[in-house]
Amino acid sequence: MEYVLVLCIGCIAGIVTGLIGASGVMVVVPAFIILGYTTSDAIGASLFIDTIASLVVAWTYYQNKNLNLKQGIWITIGSVSGAQIGSFISPFIPEVGLSSAFSIFLVITAVLFWFRGAKVGVPNLNGNDANPQQSRILKLLRSNVIVSSLLLGILVGIISGLFGAGGGVMILLILVFVMQYSMHEGIGTSTLIMAFTAASGTIGHAITSNLPLKASIFGAIGTVIGGRFAAKLANKVNEKVLSKVMGGVFVALAVIMLATTGINN
Predict the structure, then answer these.
(1) For 14-30, what is each residue's pLDDT tens digit?
(2) Enclosing H/E stretch for 242
């Protein structure tokens, strides 16, 4: 029965990745913890499942000519390196601290999705921003794209290794705001980069024995089904409504995780 539930969890995670290019970590980690896995094991499983989901979704976007890794390669290099750092740090963080930190991560992600839903569209990149300070920051980041991409990639990778996220949302923001990708191309490319990042984190967790392999495989099977189906429907989804709904779901998951941590302690 447990593995049937894991299969369903993987399917839902794949749908999340396929529809909005986000990591399935928001679904996998809380669900695995509720099933009785430790936070570190749940994160390891999430990274494994995320790797498969991202590859399936990226392939679908590639078939629709919405993938461009040429400029995103530097983010990939940085994120793969950072994921190793995060994966080795993760087991040394106390269980309660890791769960609480992950809950905060969920809330932050929820806010990003909510405002993304409230303000859908390609951002203004012409330097006429209402916020001059934001424009200066963007210009600074674009002044040396390689260095900026490497540093931002390392940061994304560390967060990925710590919390089990492939970093899809953060990578998407870098591609769209810094590298000026279109939204569809940004989603397709970010999911492929996310696959490399998650794979790196998975290896790190496997080395530290925080990877429940059997459960991860069942979850990965589910994510292939959900990810492929959802990616094909991605262009038909109302992004504004979906983003707000997902924001609410992430907040609910954060509350559940905090409540679960409190009960277990």
Answers:
(1) 988 887 777 777 788 88
(2) helix 239-264
